[in-house]
Specification:
about 180 residues, alpha+beta, Beta-Lactamase, 6-stranded antiparallel beta sheet, about 20% strand, globular
Length: about 180
């Protein structure tokens, strides 16, 4: 018997351990440029739960954040998240361009699982989420601090069709994420 999307999301959410606090976005919890990006997203959505993806203009987003944006298209049957944008800052940092690839192909695998869980949370809650680390540390690796925001977009006004991820972190520290 084929699972419904809600059942598939629930299964993913239950199967992956959480290493960060995931909460709905409020301006009060956001730091620096993340507040400006959230305000831009809020203005775009108007009275809808999420704006259309084609309404988002990268040049209207905070310039410091743009190189590190990643955006996925939400695919269904089976549920998948495929990168439609992988910023040049991410290419430089990870030495690979994931545009056109599934999030399931992302490396390191533990961060891919974490991102899948967070994207499923966005689908389940239908609201932007802020991800703040509780403890992100691998054996022999130092902890580091960052703040991610996952913003939903809807091309049809009903389902989430895209999710934009924006990260704000110290660029000298982010390399620690790949020391697991």
């Amino acid at each position: 018997m084929k699972m419904t999307e809600d059942e598939e999301i629930a299964e993913i959410l239950q199967s992956i351990e959480q290493e960060a606090l995931v909460v709905p976005v409020t301006r009060a919890i956001l730091i620096r440029e993340q507040k400006d990006l959230f305000q831009y997203w809020t203005d775009l959505r108007g009275r809808h739960f999420a704006p259309r993806w084609d309404a988002f203009e990268f040049d209207k987003a905070p310039p410091r954040l743009v190189p590190h944006f990643a955006a996925v298209e939400v695919r269904r049957d089976p549920l998948d998240f495929v990168f439609v944008h992988w910023g040049p800052g991410r290419v430089k940092m990870q030495r690979v361009d994931y545009t056109g690839k599934s999030l399931r192909e992302f490396w390191p695998e533990n961060i891919a699982r974490k991102a899948i869980r967070e994207n499923c949370e966005v689908l389940a809650r239908r609201t932007p989420l802020c991800i703040q680390p509780i403890k992100l540390k691998g054996e022999g690796a130092d902890t580091f601090d960052y703040q991610l925001m996952r913003l939903p977009f809807s091309d049809d006004g009903a389902e989430i069709t895209h999710i934009l991820t924006s990260g704000l972190y110290d660029e000298d520290e982010i390399g620690k994420a790949f020391e697991f």
